[in-house]
Write a structure and sequence with these properties.
nine-stranded antiparallel β-sheet; single chain; Rossmann fold; 437 residues; 14 helices; Dna Ligase, domain 1; five-stranded parallel β-sheet; 4 domains; D-amino Acid Aminotransferase, Chain A, domain 1; alpha+beta
Amino acid sequence: MKVIVVGNGGREHAIAWKLAQSSSVEEVICTPGNGGTAFENKCRNVEGKTQDDFIRIAKENNCDLCVVGPEDPLCAGLADKFWEAGIPTVGTKKSPAQLEGSKDFAKNFMHKYGVACADNKTFTDKAEALAYVKEHGAPIVLKADGLAAGKGVVVALNMDDALKAVEELMEGQLVGDAGRKLVIEEYMRGVEISILGAVSVNPELTKAGKSCIVPFMSARDHKRLLDGAKGPNTGGMGAICPVDDVTDEILAQFNKNILEPTLKGIQAEGWDYRGFIFFGLMITKEGPKVIEYNVRLGDPETQAVLPLMDFDFAEMCKAVTEGTLNEFKTAWKPGYVVAPVAVSGGYPKAYKKGMTIKIDTAKIEETGAKVFFAGAMENRRTEGGIVTNGGRVLACSAQGNTFDEAWKKAYAAIEHVSFDGMFYRKDIGLPGAAESN
């Protein structure tokens, strides 16, 4: 079969790479794709920008399946359009996509269905929000309601920062219209983890007893720019999978207090949600609680989780769309994956583009690592044929039987990649590297 993958990030490179490993996949059409997918086995980039473009490309290339990577097109209803065009799609339809598209919507859903999460209140009036912050004090968490590309959350540790965040999010246009509605929630103490998963739910499947969420192995993203979890927040400086401090007890609590009520809520709402889900969790002394939902796979967690899959990812995607996910058997390779991310100089603020990326392919192959490109584009006139095109440029993902082995392989590999201004953290997965409250 032919599969179309919508998106151009590191997550989409990893998805395309994993799909291409399936014997049932003839070709993966990446739209628009990036500098990595341009050279990936069985993959081909086709330029596309609009929903109509993506549908047209899928039809012209006789695609049998679509996988939508990013959140923006899902929230805009792209999956709905693909299904209407007769192309089975892994990616939730528009209504449940608001679990990521609106923080207020997601919190109301959590409270309605008893999903373990932080207490919160939503505001559209700045004066009322400021008064609430003054009454409750700091530390406190402030979240822009809408999509903000990872820039809409402020963890304010003192009152001055909290009041400043209200001003900047609601009126300062820090994240544009996304901050006109503000969710303010309690500060949870603990350490963060991520659990990704596949979802196959619609009213017909629920009636037949086939609706399900299948969780993947635990992962951890490292958001802060600098070693020791310091510096500004980013889109993610690296990830590991699995996470040793996620015990069987924590997973049991996650299933009971988060996954199961989330599934029941999706069923009760009557939604058509066939795609992926991301549970951003805080492990507190009361057990795991939801920080946020994403309605797609995480980035860079995908680059750490997918290499450990010991099953046919394309067949899982088909099972999601066909309603047989409840019968699908997952299996996982032993060991660990470590995936540090290399970013452009200046990121997460201003940075240059168009820097030639030099890669010693032979040396990287010796380490066994895989390079997943994100903010990079094809330019065959340069050495290696790839130049930088974003803030987070690539991840070096390496697997090992032990964490130490995976860590050494990943960091050995990233030493054989270079571009002007390249920067990366040196401590992904090490003690003290994870964000904690």
